[in-house]
């Protein structure tokens, strides 16, 4: 659910909307509206390089201990009309954001067409491989009312202005490091906003505490100081009477 951007103005931003609970996943139209409400669109893929970039991002979902695994993702490819299982059917698919890209990454024997008009990117790492290999990252057409995760695509941006929405900046798409985080806006700025207003109060408390300690130390020295004109010994002024003793 985090928007991922690159540290330049040449490459788009992306967001992987993954829902662990099956009941929270959405239809194709719901996913499309969700992306558009944030100023983006369902993912369109221009070439194999962009496909590989998305794959590297999705691999972060399957790292050990994350608890995230199976769940296909809606992309912006769909078919408008009632095309059947004819040879012309694959040519009827178009991108919902208006892209003219002809790049396709269909799984074996896909698209099956018929009533399946909307396209998902497979993400089923725990499923047994089929005829086309693992069900990972290749495309499949599905019924548009089915519930899946989705991927949004946005225009390039730099230096996010909102500290609440976390935006991750990575290196160039060709880098060997996957999804390297450079800048994150969120917890640290909010913490600074909380700490700075309390500084005057902390200084006032520190001054009061120091003054109190100084006064206590001064009084303590006054009690223990002894006058040089006073003797610490008691001497009797009366002459001791000698007892009458005979030698």
Mean pLDDT: 78
Number of helices: 4
Strand content: 15-25%
Question: What's the CATH architecture of the domain at 3-155?
Answer: Roll
CATH superfamily of the domain at 3-155: Mannose-Binding Protein A, subunit A
Radius of gyration, rounded? 38 Å
Q: What is the fold named in CATH at topology level of the domain at 3-155?
A: Mannose-Binding Protein A, Chain A
What is the tally of beta strands?
A: 9
Give, in order, the helices and strands. Answer: EEHEHEEEEEEHH
Query: Between the first and last Cα atoms, what is the distance in angstroms?
Result: 116 Å
Question: How is the main sheet built?
Answer: 9 strands, mixed
Q: What is the overall silhouette?
A: elongated
What structural class do helix, strand and pairing data support?
alpha+beta
CATH class of the domain at 3-155, anyone? Alpha Beta
Percent range of helical residues: 10-25%
